[in-house]
Amino acid sequence: MAQVKAGDVLERREQTTIQGEPVQVPDAERLTHLQFRRYSGCPVCNLHLRSVVTRIGDIEGAGIREVVVFHSDAETMRQFQGQLPFAVISDPEKELYAEFGVEKKMSPLAALNLKLLKTIPRAALRAPSKRKSIGIGEEKFNNPADFLIEPGGRVVAAKYGSHIADQWSVDELLELAESR
To answer: What's the CA gap between 139 and 164, in Å, rounded?
Structure first.
């Protein structure tokens, strides 16, 4: 699995959201922020997505379309991501994960990251259901990845997380879009 990097040009593909709607990646008219997250009940992922929801007006105002991918099945995802105001894709076979080089990789040392000491307890306290958020039967040992892609398919920036909370903040995303 080769990782995607800034400058690469990707072909447009059509995916289907968990709501059964078609979505093109990249979007034909706007920048696409393509996020790869962990399992659907991941408290850290859902905490991050709540920060995106609160700033969706800023994101869309900057000409960015949000598209989020989880490797959970669509039925499970609808419990956690069913009300999100942007496209969410189920990829249980991890075809997109493989195409973008988002591999299973989590070092035990990653848990020692100082950011996680603040993030994990906060995320766990805000998890909608402790039992459901455990993600029984779902892969938990992968890290997030973020891509900012122009309408023509050129990758503006790529980030492969080094731990479970290592993703672009909304401010970082907006800076990347502005600086391109």
So the answer is: 13
Give the tens place of pLDDT for each residue, 72-96.
Answer: 999 999 998 999 999 999 999 999 9
Q: Is residue 5 situated within a structural domain?
A: no
d(CA 87, CA 64): 12
Nearby residues of 45 by Cβ (< 8 Å), 6 or more positions away: 37, 38, 39, 70, 144, 164
Does a structural domain hold residue 39?
yes
Which residue, among 40, 13, 41, has the nearest Cα to 25 in the 3D structure? 13
Range of the domain at 112: 13-175
With bands split at pLDDT 50, 70 and 90, how would you rate the model's confidence at 133? very low
6 burial (CB, 10 Å; 0-12 / 13-18 / 19+) is middle
Q: Report pTM.
A: 0.85
Record the tokens describing residue 57, joined without a space. Answer: 């007006």
